[in-house]
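Whiteboard transcription, Tuesday session. T.W. wrote the structure tokens on the left side:
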């Protein structure tokens, strides 16, 4: 039986005060208690590269939700292994760096 899902994508200004908008946007779409915190940490990790814009993507499939934050520059170890990584890894089932090394993602279980 094929899984169904949805995807949303939104560009946010790369400013610390935009983190509140990211949290609200994710919280209104992903039904998981930790999704907002994970999205915040992903956003902050990309914010460290000093981009103009951070692209946030939410994708669902069955009982899974994936949150991705990406920017225009490649991430360095400081951004992908900083203090937020422990939060992301602890609150999500899987996490990693995108194949183009310009973003980070986390996958969470959202259903039964």
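and on the right, the sequence the group agreed on:
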């Amino acid at each position: 039986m094929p899984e169904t899902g949805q995807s949303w994508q939104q560009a946010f200004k790369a400013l610390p005060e935009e983190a509140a908008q990211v949290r609200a946007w994710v919280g209104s779409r992903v039904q998981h208690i930790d999704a907002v915190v994970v999205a915040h940490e992903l956003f902050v990790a990309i914010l460290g590269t000093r981009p103009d814009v951070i692209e946030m993507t939410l994708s669902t499939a069955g009982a899974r939700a994936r949150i991705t934050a990406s920017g225009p520059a490649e991430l360095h170890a400081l951004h992908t292994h900083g203090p937020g990584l422990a939060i992301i890894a602890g609150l999500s089932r899987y996490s990693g760096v995108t194949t183009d090394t310009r973003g980070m993602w986390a996958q969470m279980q959202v259903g039964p």
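Someone added at the bottom: DSSP finds four helices and five strands in the chain.
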